[in-house]
Write a structure and sequence with these properties.
- The structure is a single chain.
- By secondary structure, the protein is mostly helical.
- It has helices at 8-22, 32-47, 53-70.
- The protein has one domain.
- The longest helix is centred in the C-terminal third of the chain and has 18 residues, at 53-70.
- The two termini are 23 Å apart.
Length: 79
C-alpha cells in the first residue's frame, strides 16, 4: 500500500500535486481514468526518490498535458 512507502508529508504533497494537475483537465479531472493516470505518474516520480513539491507537481502537470494532447476535448474516449 502506498501509505507503507511514504511519510505523511510526502503523501500530502502527492495529493496536492494530483489535485492541482487534475484542475488542468477538462471538467477538473473528474474522470477516474484520467485521475488515475496522473496519480501513477506522480507515484513514479516519488518512487524515484524525487518527492519535492516542484518535482511531483511537474510530473502531474506533464501527465495532464499528455492526456490533453492525446485526446481533444469532446473527443475523449474511456481509457
Amino acid at each position: 500500500m502506498i501509505t507503507d512507502h511514504f511519510g505523511a508529508k510526502t503523501l500530502a504533497i502527492m495529493e496536492h500535486a494530483l489535485d492541482e494537475a487534475c484542475k488542468l483537465m477538462p471538467a477538473g479531472g473528474e474522470r477516474h481514468d484520467d485521475r488515475r493516470y496522473i496519480a501513477d505518474r506522480i507515484l513514479e516520480c516519488a518512487e524515484r526518490g524525487d518527492t519535492s513539491l516542484d518535482a511531483l507537481s511537474e510530473a502531474g502537470r506533464g501527465a495532464a498535458g499528455e492526456l490533453s494532447a492525446s485526446s481533444p476535448p469532446g473527443k475523449r474516449e474511456a481509457r
